[in-house]
Amino acid sequence: MSLITGYPAGAQVAQNDAQHMQQITPRAGAPSSFADLTEQLQPAVVNIATRQRVTVNNNPFSGTPFAELFGNRGRPTTREAQSLGSGFIVSADGYVVTNNHVIAAEGHAEVEEITVSTPDGTEYPAELVGRDAASDLAVLKISRDKPFPFVKFGDSSQARVGDWVIAIGNPFGLGGTVTAGIISAVYRNTGSAGAYDRYIQTDASINRGNSGGPLFDMQGNVIGINNAIFSPSGGSVGIGFAIPAETASPIVKKLMAGEEIKRGYLGVLIGPVSEDMAEALDIPENHGEFIQSVTANGPADKAGIQPGDVVMKVDGKDVTPDQTLSFLVANIEPGTRVPVQVIRDGKRQTLNISVGERPSEEELAQQTFDPDSDDLGPPQAPSSGQGVLEDALGLHVIPLNPQITRQLGVSSDTQGVVITAVDPSSDAGQKGLQRGDILLTANYQRLTSVEDLENVVKTAQDQDREAVLLRVQRRGRPAQFVPIRLKESD
């Protein structure tokens, strides 16, 4: 490492000797003020609110043999819930883009109404045109007699680390908030895996409620859709993530046209090629992905892909950290036959695979559940609309099925829900609950679905209880009861 002193603050390049220094000049687009650009763009950025109807089961005997006997007591009631987020208008006739999680129902609820508010304070009832949970995108439609101001998608593939960007949105319900920063990284993988773990990272302040809002370049084009934050505290620490426009734009066009979103699928569990693995296999580091396992009778299995193979190319495109196997395959039309280059036993070979159709996210989670994984899931979404279990218990769970039962090594007749992630700052995390634990009962009510646990938690909240009693089954240990204190709502 060398220390350079005595030169101007701009970066410089030496050419032969110090007398031939060439100063690198900044790219155009670093204004002394963002006011003019903001004035042009802000009319197309909107606030989005939902009104939801939550069903609360007030029967104290729900989930027990006494439920029917005392069925007239504690009839189910409903309560209202709300969520807030951001969005932006992409056409003069009122199509609005946002995140799916902004308009999705919370837990055991139904969305009754979606309202879009423009910067002038006018509220419009919105129609849900289409949604896609896998990419976390949704399209709404609002209407009026005259055209709406709108913005366009730009080319995020040209974005560079260090480029200026501005974000406009509705953080904490404070509409029309503008923040500025730079692109901190392009095609950032957050560790959540999946086809769309591929974000623009920015240090422009992103907070809860910014979800679904636009990230603009200095030409006023939308190059990203603000989606998530990394935050130990729950607020902005200068690490925000946006869905790149090159990913979002084709999906938005299909949703606007009413087309079904179909994605390619191989049926493999993959892992990165580490430095040690690259050395052992004598292949370049940061190229290819390692096949850990293959789903029986899936497209990869039928084509001859084997555990231990390293996939180097798909349809002629290199597999890299910026262009993962999941991303490449997801963007191939199901039914297409493509060449896949693999390294097996130190030799390269090409297999032709007929790409299948990607299952739902819940089906994938159940297929690929790894009880020994330390992965705690995707980064925290900055919308205020989290699920009741994440908010109250700091837990994420999925239904127990025969495949997961076998993976956990428990009896096939075990009923419950299995923990996939734990907030380490929650009481559940402090008391040692962990990924792979099975929740058998909650407040003595047997659990057969995620909704059963949600209902117990909601009932406890409605009765002003501060904790719930969980019966927890861990592999190789007898089940035990653990009281878990509910997190205080914000």
TrEMBL record:
Sample GO molecular function, one term: serine-type endopeptidase activity
One protein family per Pfam: PDZ_2
InterPro entries: PDZ, PDZ_sf, Pept_S1C_Do, Peptidase_S1_PA, Peptidase_S1C
Positions of region (Disordered): 355-385
Span of domain PDZ: 255-328, 397-475
UniProt keyword Ion transport, yes or no: no
Family: Belongs to the peptidase S1C family.
Identification of the protein by name: Probable periplasmic serine endoprotease DegP-like
